Amino acid sequence: MNKKDIIFTIVSLLISSTIFLVGYTKVSSPVEVYRVYLKGETIGYIKNKDLLEEYIDNEQISLKQKYNVDKVYLPNDLDIVREVTYNDSISTEEEIYNKIKDIAPFTINGYTITIKGVEEVQKEDETEPIKLPDNKIFVLDRTLFETAIKNTVHVFIPENEYENFINGDIEEKKNDIVLTEGVKNSETIVEDIYIKNPITITEGRISAEEKIYTDIEDLNKYMLFGTNEEQQKYTVQKGDSISNIAFDNKLSVEEFLIANPQFTSANNLLSEGQVVNLGLINPVIKLVEEDHIEELQKQSFDTKIEYDENMIVGYEKVKQQGVVGTLKVTKKVQKINGEIISAVITKTDVIKEATPKIIVKGSKVIPNVGNVGLWAWPTAKPYCITSPYGWRWGKIHEALDISCTGCGSPIYAANNGTVEVSKYAWPNGNYIIINHNNGYYTIYAHLSAMYVTEGQTVQMGDLIGAMGSTGNSTGCHLHYGISTGFPYRGSYQFYNPASFY
Question: Quick check: 262 pLDDT over 60?
Fold first, then answer.
């Protein structure tokens, strides 16, 4: 080998060694970086986690302005993990930002309020209780939610009653009640107020994609109607009243007044062209109110029938005129979101005794035909109407729910007639239907006992059953309906029983 070849060989070996050493040095020198995961997938490596957070915060000016906050944070589904790697492919903060800004929403600091769903009372056409879903509300300031809760409470409970509950001695206020007929006929004392739903408030990062409440009016509307959508509107026509607008749109008067707080009662006058809300309330909380109520009630007189076997059927005369009495009734009432759930009379004092009206009728033949113009009340007295005839919660209630006399209390035939049904069936439970042979039928549902059989002739005032809570019922009461045509068969129509008395 000549001198030139030897020199070439040495130079070649030196270059090879240099290349080997350089490569070896690269492999043997790992670096500390941060791996960035988005929704579980690696999107790159960065040198400094704080610099990425700072870059995002500086770029999200519009989000800061929208919610009036000082800082914007990483998305909730973005993870940054420190690790040591041989990978020297490092992304800039801008590159990582551009990869995530249109995929994952950034976050801001706030509060997540979780309102747990509770079991709701069964509806008439359902066989199982309904488990309401949870509600999540996002706010930047928890006092906004606390204010909305107070506002919701005041929708269902007058402010003066609420303040008396918060500040007053309940037992002392009960002792101070003085009722005077024609001056002060009733007094309500709130004994307890509580929210049935468990509520948790958690501070943390909220996704900017969520509905974040910053305006109290928006949150008030959601708390009351359970939706952020615009409420249905109605323009008042000539001759409209609050009662007929509510009924025509499947609302109770109470629901209408809640949706339109500018009105205080069904007697308020409306102006032609005025716009009102027809929103069906669906509060996200179940507000329980327990009331002690004392009131003076008119004690309607009973009408007693005496039969004269010497008088022809169809003839009658008044033997004694009835006189209305006065009772002082004390009752415990439980409401949920303003709707009466249960009512129990705990005490009754007679202020003035009622005098019964006595009618003498001919009895040569016992009639099974009811008197169209005379109907007997079907329960003991005094009583409570816990659910009147009419629209409530978007569904027509075709009867009166009569309560307060207690389970097992007597139920009477409202008129002469023939028992067509006496049996158990869902949802009425134990129920009786009487054909009064004058075009009308009466139905008595949720009974605890039935004392008559199908085909039996009954007279007005006869004992036919006992009040109960069978079938689809919450609490002891009588479901009392009057219809033309056999109820639930063929052609029939229910009427408001209260209009018959």
Answer: yes
